UniProtKB/TrEMBL annotation:
Keyword Thylakoid: no
Family from the record: Belongs to the NusB family.
A molecular function (GO) term: RNA binding
Protein name: Transcription antitermination protein NusB
Organism in which the protein naturally occurs: Pelistega indica
Length: 149
């Protein structure tokens, strides 16, 4: 169901989110990481994704999940384990990008996260994700957020 007009980076985020989702629902089991990655890469349309970006996001989230959760948990209104797996995954992905990929403008990170949540999440999940990431971006990238656009 890929839409050809999506950028390779967007496709990488979609595939990474699928892997993060699978990892979350498996209970964040270390042994599942390689199997999840292999399964995602076996999709016939995976070649349309930016493989390097996918790997950076997926393994970055796997390796830093605890720290990433600490960063966004102050801005959520419930325990992390009560988030939907999609909201949880999108917040992990976007928090990783905000923290580690300063070459990606914060507005792009938030927009991509909102779009992923709209596509894969519940009806109003994107509003929640947007609110959390707006607050997190102000904390992690204050100069960029406060700069005159």
């Amino acid at each position: 169901m890929a839409i050809k007009s999506r950028s390779a980076r967007r496709r990488a985020r979609e595939y990474a989110l699928q892997g993060i989702y699978a990892w979350i629902v498996s209970g964040c089991v270390h042994q599942e990481k390689g199997a999840i990655d292999a399964h995602i890469r076996s999709d016939e349309e995976f070649a349309s994704a930016d493989e390097g970006w996918y790997k950076t996001i997926l393994y970055g989230v796997f390796d830093q999940a605890g720290q990433l959760r600490e960063k966004f948990s102050r801005f959520i209104d419930r325990p992390v384990n009560e988030l939907s797996p999609i909201e949880h995954g999108v917040l992990l992905l976007a928090t990783f990008e905000l923290s580690e990929s300063v070459d990606v403008p914060y507005k792009v990170v938030i927009n991509e996260a909102v779009e992923l949540t709209k596509e894969f999440g519940g009806t109003d999940g994107f509003k929640f994700v947007n609110g959390v990431l707006d607050k997190l971006a102000a904390e992690l990238r204050p100069i960029e957020v406060n700069a005159k656009s």
